[in-house]
Amino acid sequence: MKILKKLIFAVCLLFLLTAGCIFYAFRIEPFRISVNTFAMGAEESSAEPVKIVQISDIHIKEDFTYKNLEKIVERCNRLSPDFVVFTGDLYDNYAKYSDDSRIISELKKLHAEYGKIAIWGNRDYGGGAVRKYQEIMELSGFTLLKNESMFITTKNGKKIQFTGLDDSLLGQPSMPDMTGTDAADFKILLTHEPDSVLTFPDSGHPLILSGHSHGGQVRIPFLPFVNERAVAATSLSSKYSGGMYRVGEEGKQKLYVNTGLGTTHISARFGVVPEITVFEIYI
């Protein structure tokens, strides 16, 4: 009888733990926001760093609406960014759910001292989004880059170069002419799918920012095969799935894979908290 009671208790406990994990994965973690900060460059410099805030993979849909975007915008603004960069995937499936006017209204509230820059993701092409994405981002105050570079000079005379590539799955990415870019004090490459850096080795950008992978959305301790399957579900992110990597022949370039703010496929996250990334660049 005692053994039976223990067994029943263990089964009940397992059921409660499982139910609790499922509730957390669907109702809590997807709506959290973590802020990860990295310093780069000559940190001994007496000058104030240039602060770049990266957001990615918002995936607006029925269960992640402008109200959730409002929280993201508020959190970004509290960071007082010099630049905001968005590395693609605004909507999850534009054909199924869109809310352009309210999304534009919220994105307009994002404040950056020198500018807001965006690139194309695969979801910005699919579901009919290709017809509206550029208009949405431009009305929201973003400069949308597609295989092109732009230069912005800060108040202390430092020239920052942003190069944005087209999406690698549904677009036609190519590196723009880099003639004359030696004048830049710091160069940043933006590409939605992280594994696409293998196509553009040693591009000369010390920092590469991407997204797309969501870190697999699910990372269960001690079950690496589950995590590998989760990451494998996303094309062009199997080699670089989340976090900071050294890339290029000599490892001089740093690739950061932002694990995103929204969800896709399933509206759940477990062990991969939605992320805003801050890069403090000392130049």
Helices and strands in order, then pairings?
Blueprint: H1 2-28, E1 34-41, E2 50-55, H2 66-78, E3 83-86, H3 100-108, E4 115-118, H4 133-139, E5 142-144, E6 148-153, E7 159-164, E8 186-190, E9 207-210, H5 224-232, E10 243-247, E11 253-257, E12 275-282
Parallel strand pairs: 1-12, 2-3, 3-4, 4-5, 7-8, 8-9, 9-11
Antiparallel strand pairs: 2-12, 6-7, 10-11
Helix pairs in contact: 2-3
Protein name: Metallophosphoesterase
Domain Calcineurin-like phosphoesterase: 51-215
Pfam families: Metallophos (PF00149)
Can you characterise this structure?
By secondary structure, this protein is of the alpha/beta class. It has a single domain (32-282), classed as Purple Acid Phosphatase, chain A, domain 2. Helices cover 23% and strands 23% of the residues. The protein has five helices and twelve strands. The protein has a six-stranded mixed beta sheet with strand order 1-12-2-3-4-5. A six-stranded mixed beta sheet has the order 6-7-8-9-11-10, with no helix packed on it. α2 (66-78) packs parallel to α3. It is globular. It starts with a helix and ends with a strand. The model has no long low-confidence stretch (mean pLDDT 90).
What keyword list fits this structure?
six-stranded mixed sheet, Purple Acid Phosphatase, chain A, domain 2, 283 residues, 23% helix, 23% strand, alpha/beta
Specify the structural class.
Answer: alpha/beta
Strand order, largest beta sheet = 1-12-2-3-4-5
Please trace the helix and strand order, writing H or E for each element.
HEEHEHEHEEEEEHEEE
**In whole angstroms, how far apart are the ends?**
72 Å
The percentage of residues in β strands lies in 15-25%
CATH level 3 topology: Purple Acid Phosphatase, chain A, domain 2
Q: Give a short account of the largest sheet.
A: 6 strands, mixed
